[in-house]
Specification:
The structure is a single chain. It is built from six helices and seven strands. By secondary structure, it is an alpha/beta fold. It has a seven-stranded mixed sheet, with helices on both faces.
């Protein structure tokens, strides 16, 4: 962790000189060191990537005082992403993304920041129970190479729902069998959460390898 001199605290896995650096932000309800984020970061590090994690200001406050508050407004979240990219430098070499909220905000800054790629782990295409409120308008102009890893029965954007969206060819999908928004399948599906997390890691590692 770092945090001296006004810099943003970062949690790093993998070799500092790895050929790819992946920067991941957490989802709305869990911190950067949640079991989900730990598993993804460690899995990618084992496959040769450097993985950097950080927290949005509201999650930093929660860590300090233990009080649960709502996520910051989107301008604050976008500013934190841009600050982290600036702190790391060499934006054109970075792949950014994250879990749910973290990946959604990353998708909003990817083009302006000039990053190499984007990875969204469970993209929240709409709020729970509100499929009419799509969060896809900015994705139509997205040219950054993108991977979205999505559970097939994600309540915030299932495979069947996504098939009806008008999305650009720059977006690659990896669907995880019977996975929910956190990739967890039902007991009777014949799959396990471990299966789906392993597949998410492999798909992301393959995407990183395929980037120019």
């Amino acid at each position: 962790m770092t945090g001296r001199g006004g810099t943003i605290d970062l949690l790093e896995d993998g070799a500092p000189d790895a050929p790819r650096t992946v920067v991941l932000a957490h989802g709305a309800g869990a911190p950067m060191d949640s079991p989900f984020m730990d598993r993804i970061a460690q899995g990618l590090a084992e496959r040769g990537a450097r993985v950097v994690r950080f927290e949005f200001p509201y999650m930093e406050r929660r860590r300090r005082d233990g009080r649960r508050g709502p996520p910051d407004r989107e301008p604050v979240l976008r500013a934190r992403w841009l600050d982290v990219i600036g702190q790391l430098g060499r934006a054109a070499s970075l792949v950014i993304g994250g879990k749910s909220l973290g990946g959604r905000i990353a998708s909003q800054v990817a083009a302006d920041a000039g990053v190499r790629g984007l990875v969204c782990l469970g993209y929240p295409f709409h709020p729970p129970g509100r499929p009419d409120r799509l969060r896809t308008a900015h994705l139509g102009d997205l040219r950054t190479p993108t991977l979205i890893v999505q559970g097939t029965r994600d309540a915030l954007g299932s495979r069947d729902e996504i098939a009806t969206y008008d999305l650009p060819p720059s977006i690659r999908f990896e669907f995880l069998g019977d996975g929910d928004h956190s990739f967890k399948p039902r007991v009777g599906s014949g799959r396990t959460l471990d299966d789906n997390l392993a597949r998410a890691i492999e798909a992301t590692a393959s995407f990183l390898t395929d980037l120019p």
